[in-house]
Structure formats: C-alpha cells, structure tokens
Amino acid sequence: MSTTTTTTTPLRRLDEARFAPLSLAIGEADVYLVAEALLGQRRTERFEQPPQTPAPSATLTLALARLLPIGLLRFIGAQGGERAGRVLRRRGDRVVLIDVALGDDDAFHVDLDDDAAFSLRVSSAWPTAVWQLARDVMPLVQPRPHDRGGLRELDPAERHRLLTSSPPAATLSGDHLAYACAVESLPRLGLPSRFETLITRGFAAGSPLAHLYRLDDVELRHLDVDRLLQRPLSRSLELLGPGLATAWLRQVRRLLSHAADIDEVVARATCMSRQLLRLVDAMDAAGRLDLLESVVTFLRGLPEAIPAETRSRLLRLPGVTTMADRDRVVGAVASIFGVVDVVDRVVGTIGSARFGDERFVEARATAGVVAPLAKHRDGIIAARRALTGVVG
Asked: Which of 117, 149, 180, 211 is the most buried (most CB within 10 A)?
C-alpha cells in the first residue's frame, strides 16, 4: 500500500502534516493495514510483510496519528455516541443534566476542573501495540505447511514471543477507546481463533473499558469497575452504552451456541453475571445510575438471546448427566436474569428521592433510563421461567 507522492522535506506546518500525501515502505504499509483493521475498517488488502526496522519511521508515526482520531470518532458513533440522551454532571454542590452525545468541545479540549471534559488524546500505548502486533505476532499466523492454527505448532522461541507481546497499559482516554475498538474489531484480521483470543485478552487486560467488551472471559483479571466510573473513563462509558449492550448479547449467544461442555457454560455465564452485578452496584455507589442504559438495553434483549428452547439445549450439553448437573448449568445461565433483580433494587433505593435530596436529579434521569424495561418485563419474565422450568 503506497501513495503516489513521497514527502522529501520535514513537515513544518499543521496543514502539511494533516494533508500531505505519504508513502510507506513495504512492511510499514502492512502495519498501517493492521491499524486500519483494529479501528474497524474493511480492506481488500491482506497483511503480508512485517516491518523490518527496529522502530516506526516518522512517516508511519504521522500516518497512524492521522488515522487514529478519525477511527475513534467512527467507533464512538457506531457504538451510539451520537444518540439523544442526558447524563449527570456535578457543578460544585449542584447536579445538572447534559446531552450524552459527543460534542465539538468534547473532542478538542481538556479542562481538568470539569469532569464533562473529554479528549481523544493518546499516549504511545496504541501505536506501540499496533507495532508489536504487526512485528511479533502477525508473522506467526501466516499460513505454513501443516499449520492448524494452534500454539502447538510454534517453537519455544515463537511461543515466548507471542505470549510476551502484550499491549502496554492504556493511560489516556484515547488509549482506552482504541483498545476497546481493537477488541471489537480484531476478527477483521482473520486470525486463527486461539491467536485472536490471546491478542484480545492482551488489549482487554490493558484497559477496563476494553475489558467490558469481554465480560464472559474467565481468564481476565478482575474488572476495575471503580475506575470505569471515574473520569476520563466515565465519559467513554456514557458514549458507548448501546454498543456495550450489543457486545454482551453477542457473548450470550456465542456462549449458548459454541460452548464445548457444561463447565464452559457455567464458568462463562457465572463470570458474566458477576461482572454485571458488580458494575450495577458500583454505579449505585458512585451515584451514577444514569449510566444504566447499557445494562437496561442488554436486559431488554435477553428474551431473544436466551429463547425458550435454551433449557432443552443446555440439558443436551456434554457433561450434563445428573439432576445436579442440570440444576448447575441452568442456574448459571439464569444468574444472568438475576441482573434484573439488582437493577430493580438499586433503582428502588432512589425512587423515593424528593426535590432537594442529594440523588433527586439522578433519580429523575434514572427513571427515564429504566423505563424501557417496563415494556419488555413480560418477555423477560417469560424467558426466565422457560429457562428455569418455573410455572406461574
């Protein structure tokens, strides 16, 4: 991949850096392809040549810097960041509501005295992660004779290289968004499933925001829910709510259709429900129940993700041989429905707030967020009963 014009002098002006045609060497062009894929873009070209230099050139660094903000804005929009809605803001002793949709001021300035501020700034973490992926990992997944896509085909040095090429920890808000986007977009690279899982875990381990997109992964460390509710991550959480719900529903469907046996279903379903319960309780403790939109949207989709025939499907899983096995696997999946009970509980705690109470504005905002649950309550109850076998 190469443009027709090569820059021959240093770029001194901002407009030159933004618009000058760039030419990337073989290898670095393929790094750019990986970066595009991680930002959710589709391309016909495929990765062929890893970079041959010890570090990215100035031209590649500029190319990635130009690509990233556009990719992040597209990701935010695709996840629901341009939707209508209101979220809480604290102004000294006052609590007010602002539009949830990403605005011009969000993207272009940072005011550390205002927790409404937001920035797409990134550290070196994301470019470093892309570089490591293209240099150290992609060459290991290229077709080889008799390769079945598993780690057993790697020699010890290659395996060590793969397992030690984890992305650095995200620090700035743009890093966290880029890692979350990478977790969602990794399937675009077409990697063997075991490689994709390892790389995805690396990004998820580097950011609690990215971890939210892998709630059912039992191999990941404990989700840092408290950090998610602090700036700058709380602003990202506001923007990405619908996209998170879609990702969680996809995980439930994948769990029910692709799990190998009872143990996998129990482990993943239990992990997912516990993480969601912790997230809801943390929102309550932080006074941010206005952020329940992602959870509510997820719960609304459960009757479709866990249809009436799920119970019979679970009872046919390998490893389900006794009544105790049946109860264990059904109980694990039913624990996901238990999130409804916790949402009802925490919303009920602030439902009686009156004008002048500390959580009055939050209560008003939360009432609107959870209102869609009422329309879907009967379907959720019916799906839960069909799963557990409870009648009446």
From this structure: 180
Nearest Cα residue to 372 out of 20, 178, 85:
85
User: Which residue ranges of the chain lie beneath pLDDT 70?
Assistant: 1-19, 43-44, 103-117, 142-154, 391-392
- Position 361 scores a pLDDT of 92
Characterise 116 by phi-psi region: left (phi > 0), alpha (psi -120 to 50), beta (else): alpha
Backbone torsions φ then ψ of 286, nearest 5 degrees: -85, -5
Whole-number pLDDT of residue 141: 76
| Residue 307 pLDDT | 95
Tens-digit pLDDT profile for residues 170-223: 999 999 999 999 999 999 988 888 888 989 999 999 999 999 999 999 999 889
Rg of the Cα atoms in the chain: 23
DSSP letter at 90? E
Residue 37, φ and ψ in degrees, nearest 5: -65, -40
Q: How far apart are CA 140 and CA 341, in angstroms?
A: 46
- In this structure, how many other beta carbons lie within 10 angstroms of the beta carbon of residue 284? 21
Cβ(369)–Cβ(296) below 8 Å = yes
Cα distances from 92 to residues 22, 95, 117, in angstroms, run: 48, 8, 15
- Residue ranges of the alpha helices (H) in the chain? 14-19, 28-38, 58-78, 104-108, 125-132, 156-163, 173-185, 193-205, 208-211, 225-228, 233-239, 241-258, 262-285, 293-300, 302-305, 310-315, 323-350, 360-388
Q: What's the CA angle centered on 149, arms 145 and 155, to 5 degrees?
A: 70
Do the Cβ atoms of 151 and 181 come closer than 8 Å?
A: no
Here the tokens at position 339 are: 């999130």
CB of 166 closer than 8 Å to CB of 202: yes
- Give the three-state DSSP class for 168: coil
Contacts of 212 (CB under 8 A, 6+ apart): 180, 223, 228, 237, 244, 247
